[in-house]
Amino acid sequence: MKPAADVRARRADLLAGVRNVVVKVGSGVLADAGGLDPSSVARIAGAIALLRAQGLRITLVSSGAIAAGRAVLGTSASSDIPERQATAAVGQIRLMAAWERAFAPHGITIAQVLLDSDDLASRARYLNAEHTLATLDRLGALAVVNENDTVAVDEIKFGDNDTLSALVANLVGADLLLILTDVDGLFERDPRLDPAARRVAVVERVDGRTLETAGDGAGALGTGGMRSKLLAARRAAAAGIATALVHGRHDGAIGRALDAAQDEGTFFLPRANRLARRKHWIAFGRSPRGDLHCDSGARNAVLTEGRSLLPSGVLRSEGRFGEGDCVRLLGPDGSEFGRGLVAYAAADLTRIAGRSSHEAHEILGYATMGGAVVHRDDLVLTDGDE
Ligand code: GLU
Q: Does this model's pTM top 0.85?
């Protein structure tokens, strides 16, 4: 489907301004049933070396640890968590060895950065990770990021490297997230079911309908599938970052994806009103620990007047959150309208729900900034279907 001229122009503008790229490579691109495919690793390393030679900052997010480990251990796909973690422990060093070999001829030193979502949920660790990545770049080393699969338990898993790559893109202040996968892009309908389905060249906004076109299926080797790529593109878009989704096994695809004159894969436009990075971190960097059910007056004040959430607007809360944790704000119909950092622990909030800020102060013997439950500076409005 050919995009309209104004959309093409926006894409061209964005591509012309690209300086800082996160390249995410899926297991399906790097490996096959026999393990890592050195020719694929070498091809991508060559393309990345070219981009760096053009002066672009690159951060690589690489899957493939589990796929590589499986081939070494001779095991088959397993959903058993300890077995996956053990497999990742074996595979991660193979993966890094493969990247090191592939980048060496280009004179590029690589660095391994393993993250779990706890690392990005704490503001101090988030800033520290940002600092380390910036320092690696300053020293000329290429960061190769993966999820710390061997220690990540369910609650602290990103789930898939698509999600991780969107967070890393925000972390390093990228202007483009380039996702290399084993399909040609997003199609109007699932091309495996309908071979006549056409590729979508540019997506202006990932909404519920876009997500429906994706289906749920993950590839044979990775964990993501198209849906998680669309969610990653949406997260990136919210931070003002464009996403390009291209086939990582096609020769020259990376170069074409960055060339506005070419038509490769699917390009996702960023949102014009990007969330500040701290707000993006609030919305996407952390798992919510609870829900605040709000009345309609509070919902309107937050949504339309940019107000803080006060105790009087909270009907009740659910979950075991502490002060400073991320919570979801739900309207009277139960749908999410925002996320934020809550100023009270769950037990205290229960005591003051529905009370005025003044009463809340008296009941608890202390008050937060402006008496807010979630201060407007700590609050971000969300689409609600994360
Ligand atoms: N971190 C996993 C690995 O390296 C991949 C997760 C994913 O497929 O998204 O094997």
A: no
Q: 108 lies in a domain?
A: yes
Q: How far is the CA of 181 from the centre of ligand 1 (A)?
A: 12
On whether both 198 and 300 belong to a single domain, the answer is no
Measured from CB, residues less than 6 Å from any atom of ligand 1 are: 27, 63-67, 88, 146-147, 149, 160-161, 222-224
**Nearest atom of ligand 1 to the alpha carbon of 224:** 9
pLDDT tens profile 132-153: 999 999 999 999 999 998 887 7
C-alpha 89 – ligand 1 centre gap (Å)? 12
Which residues of the chain have a pLDDT value below 70?
A: 1-2, 155-156, 215-224, 369, 383-386
Assign residue 372 the CATH number of its domain. Answer: 2.30.130.10
Structural domain including 352 reads 288-381
Inter-residue contact 44 to 37 (CB < 8 Å): no
What does 290-357 look like in DSSP terms, one character per residue? EEEEE-HHHHHHHHHH-PPBPGGGEEEEEE---TT-EEEEE-TTS-EEEEEE-SS-HHHHHHHTTS-H
Report how many domains make up the chain.
Answer: 2
Taking alpha carbons only, the member of 234, 180, 214 closest to residue 63 is: 180
Domain annotation covers residue 386:
no
Tens-place pLDDT, residues 34-52: 899 999 999 999 999 999 9
Residues 237 and 299 in one domain: no
Q: Mark whether 317 and 269 lie in a shared domain.
A: no
Distance 137 CA to ligand 1 centre (A): 24
